[in-house]
Amino acid sequence: MTNQPEERTRKQFIVRWIVATLVGGAIGLVVFYGVEWFWRHIADTYIDSAVLLLMIGFFTGLVQWPVTLKGKVSWHWWTAASLASFIIWGVASHMNFLATPLDEHYLTQLRTNIKIITEFNSNKIPISIISFLLTGMVAGLPQWLVLRRQFQPAYRWLLGMTVGSLASLLLLTVIGFASGDDILGALAVVCTLLPLLPITYASVTGYVLFDVLKRAKTNNVSE
User: Fold this and answer.
1) Can you count the helices (H) and strands (E) in the chain?
2) Which of 24, 93, 154, 161 is the right S-S partner for 147, CB 3.0 to 4.6 Å?
């Protein structure tokens, strides 16, 4: 028999985790484009990508901490770990196209990248799966290093990040093949992925994080 109060608490935790992830990412995007507007001479795509990932990683970790992690881990270590995780994701995923303007070229390029990643043939499927598995696990290492100091089952975080990566690949595949090849199809991809990708990823990692936080190694509380 399932523990109904605990399951209700888990669902509430996951919802808070998803909201914090979405809000933090949105703040990062707004700050990034604000910096771009004032600092127009940033023209190099790789610099743009680095700044974007730094902003999203920093603000995502910063918002996640008071909502779900306050009193459990140190805020500055969690924020730094989140920032490092996003940088790893960016490097591994070759996300240089994310910082280009939201025009037809951007949309079609994004659509092309998703098609390449999720193309169904015997050669690309194993490569995509292995790539997302490894990326999720490596990107989860910074947060794991923070969690393992306080919580016994911190290894579950790495499993959650890995499963979340596979769930993201499945979402990319479904959206990539459901959308059309024209500019409207590419726009639909962007509008769908922006909310659904972080929601999917946060749902999986939030479910796992709830279990991790239940088992502290000591009674020490980080502030």
Assistant:
1) 7, 0
2) 154
Cα angle at 33 between 118 and 54, to 5 degrees?
65
pLDDT tens string 106-118: 445 555 555 555 4
Confidence at 158, pLDDT banded by 50, 70, 90: very high
Q: Where are the domains of the chain?
A: 4-213
| Residue of 112, 117, 109 lying closest to 92 (CA atoms) | 117
